[in-house]
Write the structure tokens for this entry.
Amino acid sequence: MLRVDNVSVAFDGCQALAGTRIEVAEGETLAVLGPSGSGKTTLLRVIAGLTRPDCGRVLLDGRDVTAVPAHARGIGLMFQDGVLFPHRDVAGNVEFGLRIAGVPREQRRRRVAEVLELVGLRGFEQRPVATLSGGEQQRVALSRALAPAPRALLLDEPLGSLDGPLRARLLDDLAEVFEAIGLTAVHVTHDVGEAFALGHRVAVMLEGRVVQCAPPDELWTRPRDEWTARFLGMTNVCELDGRRVVVRPEAVRLRRGDDVTVLSVERRGAVVHVRVRGDDGDEFEAVTTELDHPRAGGRVTIDIDPAGVVELEERPSPG
Ligand code: ATP
């Protein structure tokens, strides 16, 4: 449905995109995940038609839209800070795109009510935007982007300014809304959890290229190289029989014993992360959901499930 084909963009000699390729199917959410400066925003801008690529093409429904101006692409955008118009009420913000497109008043009113309902803000039409919470403002920004029924929606760190439970809730709501309307979306984030929660597939970017693109489970079980594994949060990278491997933390099993020292124990929600060091100095991270988990300073034995050992491709780790 949406295809970015071999796109490159350079700014003053800095290669923001270097032969980037992605494909997004109808109704799919593709999460684009990468560190700061990896080219995520530039990629969105190219898809939206806000940045003209030096080479390569953008195809929408098989049609080359590389030279089509942004407003004629039928693509919606939502950025980190929704930047609502402060002097308009909620309805005035949501109907903005429809008004520009010349949609008649009654039709606009109906569509505004429809999208506000969709994002859980039914009846908010007359509220001044200054009286809304951060989460509500982002919902209004989402409604505004959805109101013209775009062919695809591009989201750039839309939850960036929110934190804690509010962020988690909006994340769930976004996934639900996308599913409900079968939206085709590209969601840019540097947050692994967010990419895994929202993306049907996740494209991992580094230095203007997609290094791996796969569904979350596949990405987690088979990260291609050391950099990707580490970026996803895996730290158990080591040599095994002359091969560079990563051991997924859930494959490191802890049991009573006296082989390794427990360095730290950290609960993150339902899961406890346990870091251990062997007498040879090798460190491993394990995760457990056991309430009766080891304590820092204690001694345990670890077993490694071979199914959780992933061979890594050679690629120099940047930085
Ligand atoms: P972040 O997560 O920090 O937003 P990003 O992955 O979205 O980063 P981009 O904003 O796409 O990365 O930037 C990619 C590279 O291109 C960076 O090195 C950035 O400094 C550079 N760049 C982006 N836009 C411009 C511009 N208008 N002029 C010059 N350089 C730019």
Observations:
- Residues 74 and 150 are 5 Å apart (CA to CA).
